[in-house]
C-alpha cells in the first residue's frame, strides 16, 4: 500500500515518516509548493491509496478543488 502526505515539516509529519513504514506501507511525500494541478495528479499517478493533508494546505482553495477532483470527492 502507498500512503501520500501533503504537509509542512511538523511533528505530525514526522510521525507519519515513522508510522507508515512500520505498518509495511510506502510513504510518498508530495511537495506542498507545487501548483495545485500538479498536486492533484501525483497521488493518482503514484497509485496512492491514502492521503494525509495538512489543514493549512487543505484550506487553499485551488489545491482543495484540485485534490477533490483527483479523488472524486464532490
From TrEMBL:
The family database entries (InterPro entries) matched by this protein are listed as: AMP-dep_synth/lig_dom, ANL_N_sf
Tell me the Pfam families matching this sequence.
Answer: AMP-binding
Q: What is this protein called?
A: AMP-binding protein
List residues of the AMP-dependent synthetase/ligase domain. 2-55
